[in-house]
Amino acid sequence: MSRVPRRYAIHLLLNGGHREVVHFQTLDDFQKWYGGVLTTAAPEAFVNVPISELEGEYLVLRAGSVLGLRVEPLYATLDD
Questions:
Q1: DSSP class per residue in 34-75
Q2: Region at 4 (left for phi over 0; alpha for psi -120 to 50; beta for the rest)
Q3: Whole-prediction pTM value?
């Protein structure tokens, strides 16, 4: 039986060596955000990154400051 991830941790690698980790419930949610917000915005434009499951809580950064992404499936609960 294959395991199903409970959520996905998205590691954002930013300019200046900064890193931020955000979580998405499904891979589709992440792909929808990535394709609809991050890739379509101008590099100097600010974009909202949802940082928690609380409604309306965001990290705001410039689209061009994201140098790389790492997608990590998480099989355990977030509190483990």
A1: IIIIITTS-TTSEEEEE-SSSTT-EEEEEGGGEEEEEEEEE-
A2: beta
A3: 0.83
> What is the chain's length?
80
Per-residue pLDDT of the chain (80 residues; tens, 9 = 90+): 578 899 999 999 999 999 999 999 999 999 999 998 888 889 999 999 888 766 778 889 999 999 999 999 999 865 54
**Cα distance between residue 38 and residue 46, in whole Å:** 9
In angstroms, the CA 54 to CA 63 distance is 22
Residue 33 CA to residue 15 CA, distance in Å, equals: 20
CA-CA distance, 23 to 46, in Å (whole number)? 19
Give the three-class secondary structure for 2.
coil
